[in-house]
Amino acid sequence: MPLRPTPEVRGLARALAASAALAGLLATAACGARAGEETVATESCVDTSGDTVKVGSLNSLSGTMAISETTVRDAIALAVAEVNAAGGVQGKQIEIVAEDGASEPTVFAEKAEKLIREDCVAAVFGGWTSASRKAMLPVFEDNDSLLYYPVQYEGLEASENIFYTGATTNQQIIPALDYLAETGVESLYLVGSDYVFPRTANAIINAYAEAHGIEVLGEDYVTLGSTEFSTIVNQVKSADADAVFNTLNGDSNVAFFREYANVGLTAADMPVMSVSIAEEEVGGIGVENIEGQLAAWNYYQTVESPANTAFVEAFKAEYGAERVTSDPMEAAYNSVHLWAATVEKAGSFAVADVQAAADGVSFDSPEGTVVIDGDNHHVTKTARIGEIAADGLLYTVWESDGPIEPDPFLEGYDWAADLAVTE
Amino acid sequence: MDLLVGQLLTGLSTGSILLLAALGLSLTFGQMGVVNMAHGEFIMAGCYTAYVVQQVVGDAGVSLLIALPIGFLVGGAMGLVLEALLLRRLYHRPLDTLLVTFGVGLVLQQAARDVFGAPAVNVSVPEALRGGVDLLGTTVPRTRLFIMALAVLAVTAVALVLRFTPAGRRIRAVTGNRDLAETAGISSRRVDAATFFIGSGLAGVAGVALTLIGSTSPTTGQSYLVDAFLVVVAGGLGRIKGAVVAAVALGALQAVFETYSTASLAKVGVFVVIVVFLQLRPQGLFTLRTRSLA
C-alpha cells in the first residue's frame, strides 16, 4: 500500500522535489543501465561459512513514511530475535543490517543494491509504498536476490524475486465488498486520495459493483494530504448512499472523518469502510470521530489466537505497553518466520533453492496459518472486517471462511477480466 | 439553484479557512515582502499549542479559548526570533530569505517530530462545536461557522489596528515608502519586528482554529502554505481587502468546480484560473498605490 501518512509537500518543495525526482530518475536510469550490463557478472556474495548470516531490514526511518515504517522495522527485529532464540536458521544466528529508505523510492533502490552487493545479505525485508516496491523490483531481479514485502497493495504484480506477505486485492478489497453486499448495501460512494492505489482499488470496486448490482453514486479524489472536505461530504450526504468506501491516505482521513461526523453522518446510517486505517491512525483521527466505522484488514491487535497473544505480549515487552500492533507489522513479522522456514525446508540460503522450496511453506501466524503460494509468491490470508471501538482498537465483526488463496491478477473473477487486461 | 447556494456557502467557509491561513502572510509577505516559507510551520506550532493547552486544561471548550491568545503569542514569538536572528540580515535578498525560511520550516517540522512524535495527535473538538447547522439546504458544521466568525474577527482587528493605531500607521508608512518613513523618524527595524510579530501570531491563531477541522501532525502546515501564498498573490500584495476577496473567491471557485468534477481536478481548475488571472493582472486584484520609486 501506498503512502499512509503522506502530506503533500508543495510550492518550492514541489519544484525542488520535481528537480530531485528528475535527477533521481536520471541516476536510476544510469544505474539501471550499469546493472543491466553487469547482470551476467552478478554472483551472489552471500557468505554462509560462518556462524551468522546477514539479512537486510530496509525501511523509511526518516521522511514522511517514517511514522509507519519504523513500526515495521520493530516487528522485523522482534521476529529475528525470536528465530535466533530458537536456534537460528540452519544453525546460524541472523544478523540484521538496517538501512534507511528515507521515504524516497530512489533511495530504496540504492540501499537495496547496497545491501545485496556490499553487505551480501541473504534476503531483504521491508518497503511500504508501492512506489518504493516498484523502484526496488528491478534491483532484486537484476541481482537475483529476495525481497519480502509486508504491506497490502493494489495487486496486479508477481515477481520471482519478491514475496508478498501483505494482502492483495482479493484478500482485502473484495472481501470488504462481499461483506457490504451481505449486509444489504446496494449503493456506494467512493472517496480516495489521487494516486495509483485508490484509482486501482476503485476500478476493481466499480467492476465488482457492476457485476453485483450495486450502484456507485459517486467517485471522488482529493490530492494527497488535502484537508478540505466540505463539498465532498455534502455530496456524500445528498447522494445518500448505503455506505462509503474510503481509500484516503494519511492526514486526509482526519479532516474527512471530522467533517463526516459534523454534518451528522454516523456509522449507523452510512458506514464508512476504510482500507488504510489501522490501530495507529485511530488516535490521530480521534476515536470520537470514527467510533463504529469499519476497516478491512487481515489482522487486528485484538485477534484471538494463541499465536497473536504471544506476538502482542512479546512486542509490548520489547517496545513498551503503550505500543499497538497493526496489520503491516504482523505481515512483516510473518515474513521473517516464513523466510526462515523456507530456508530450513530448502536446506540452503541460495535464492534459487529458496524459490524452489517456497511453495507450501506455512507459518502459524497471529492472523492464522499463512501458506506461501509458489506460483505467485503471495500468501494465503484470512480477510477480516473490523469495527473501531471506543478504546481505539479494532474488533473483528466478520471474517472469511478460512484463509483466502492469493489471486493478484484476479483471474478467478469473471467480472474482473477487463481489469487485468487493461493493466 | 439550491445546490449552487449551498456550494457558495461552502465556498465561504472554505474561503474563511484560506483567509485565516493567509492573513498573517498578507502582512509579512504582502506588507514587508518577506517570502516566509516557514509560515506553514508557524500554523503547525499553533496546532500543537492547542494540543498542549488541551492536555493541561482538559476541557476542550475552555482550552480552545485559552489556546487562541496563547497561539498568537507562540506564533508571534517564533516570528520575532526568526526575524531578529535571520531575516533582519537578509532584507533585500528575497531568494536567500526564501531558502533560509524553507530550511527553518524543515527544522521546525523535525523538532515537532522529536517532541511530539511523528504520528498525528488528536485535539478534541468542544462539545458545543460538534454537529452542524442546517442553512439554505446544506449542513454547515459548527466548527466552520466558528472559523468564519474568527476570520471576520481577525480581519476586522487587523484592519482596525492598521487604520487607527499609531503602530498601524507606522506599518502602513513603511509599507508605502520605507525610505520616506525613515526620514520621518520612524524606526523601520522596530516596525518590521512588530509587523512580523503580528503576522506570525496570526499564523499561530490560525493553527489553533484549524485543529477543529484538520489533523495535527508535524507536516500539517505544509498543506496550508501554498493556498495561503495563492490568496496573497491573487489578492494583491499589501492589501488586506485583496486577501479577503481572493480567499472567498478561491473558496467559492474550488467549491463550484468540485461540484462538477473531483476535488483533485477542481484544484487543477483553480490553479489554471489563477495562472490565467495573473497573466492578465500580474499585480493581483488590488494594488497599493505608492509614490515609492523602488
Strands, helices and their partners?
The complex is a heterodimer of chains A (423) and B (294).
Chain A: H1 12-38, E1 52-59, H2 66-85, E2 93-100, H3 105-117, E3 124-126, H4 130-142, E4 147-149, E5 162-164, H5 173-182, E6 187-193, H6 196-212, E7 215-222, H7 230-239, E8 243-247, H8 252-262, E9 272-274, H9 279-285, H10 287-290, E10 294-297, H11 306-319, H12 327-346, H13 351-357, E11 362-365, E12 368-371, E13 384-388, E14 394-399, H14 417-422
Chain B: H1 2-31, H2 39-57, H3 60-85, H4 94-116, E1 132-135, E2 138-141, H5 142-164, H6 166-176, H7 178-183, H8 188-210, H9 222-235, H10 240-260, H11 263-280
Antiparallel strand pairs in B: 1-2
Poorly predicted spans of chain A = 3-41
Q: Helicity of chain B, in percent?
A: over 70%
Which band does the percent of strand residues of chain B land in? under 5%
> Regions of chain B with pLDDT < 50 over 5+ consecutive residues?
none
CATH class assignment of chain B: Mainly Alpha
Please give the alpha-carbon distance between the first and last residues of chain A.
17 Å
CATH top level class name of the largest domain in chain A:
Alpha Beta
**Secondary structure: number of strands of chain B:** 2
Q: Give Rg of chain B in angstroms.
A: 19 Å
How many helices of chain B? The count is: 11
What's the CATH superfamily of the largest domain in chain A, by name? Response regulator
Major sheet attributes of chain B: 2 strands, antiparallel
Number of domains of chain B: 1
The helix-strand sequence of chain A is HEHEHEHEEHEHEHEHEHHEHHHEEEEH
**Kindly, what is the distance between the CA atoms of the first and last residues of chain B, rounded to a whole number of angstroms?**
49 Å
CATH topology of chain B: ABC transporter involved in vitamin B12 uptake, BtuC
What integer is the average pLDDT of chain A? Answer: 87
* Class per helix and strand makeup of chain A: alpha/beta
Strand order of the largest sheet of chain A: 7-6-8-9-10-13-14
Number of helical regions of chain A:
14
User: Which strand order do you get reading across the main beta sheet of chain B?
Assistant: 1-2
